[in-house]
Design brief:
The chain is an alpha/beta fold and 283 residues long. It contains 9 helices and 8 strands. β7, α8 and β8 form a beta-alpha-beta unit. α1 packs across α5 and α4 runs antiparallel to α5. The longest helix has 26 residues. Belongs to the bacterial solute-binding protein 9 family.
Amino acid sequence: MNDTVPVTPVGGEINSSAPLSVAVTIPPYQEFAEAIGGKRVEVMVMVPPGASPHTYEPTPGQLRALSKTPLYLAVGTGIEFEDSWMDSLTSVNRDMQVVDTSLGITLLSTETEDTATADDTIRYDPHVWLSPANARIIARNIADAYIAYAPRDAAYFEAQFKTYDENLASLDEGIKDTFAGTAKNTVLVYHPAWGYYADQYELDMTSVEEDGKEPSPASLKAIITSAEEAGIPVIFASPESPTRNAEAIADEIGGSVVYISPLAENYTENLVEVTDAFRKWAV
């Protein structure tokens, strides 16, 4: 977890007459939090659907709501919104407990020869939730946080977790089945959000952006040439980010842009749709 995101030991009580107020950073975590918390939680998403965690700023209304929120389930991997705003978020509620839901996940480095920093700081891909295997770890961490905060409801949260964990396991198996029996596994993406997914399902994925930054002219030329030679027909882009450059690259390769969101609120359904798109357009 990035050093700017505090980790506080959990422990508290839920008023039996009201659900536990929980905050999460991005929409996919709303599914995680609600699936495990069920009727015992009420979830607020800080970065709403359609917004980007790279640029979004919390509203005064969100800060007021956060002042009464006892539990924040953080992504914990250096996602920009948390790095930029967590100190401000915790300042409105010093009693709010911030939980790093990425604990136990092996992070992937985003460093290349072109993006390595002079101070040898290692940068990691923050998009851990896009691997179902990681999502199961995140879900376990959320369940543990709920149980630690409200031990009287431990059996309920554990049962909710078990059901959702089985759903994630089924999602994983379904994705594996989708890619089974095909040698086509090469795709081109604009933003490097899908590295954990590609790692889990052994996709040969090229990202135009390098560590979230625009590529050098030489790198861009090499990517376009490679895509043309491979016959890649589409570039995948995120609808939450500017798409003009992706559209320009699509023109260069004689292809088109296919939009897939790493931030969709319907996490399970979204990964099924993204998998179908990767399977359809991979070469």
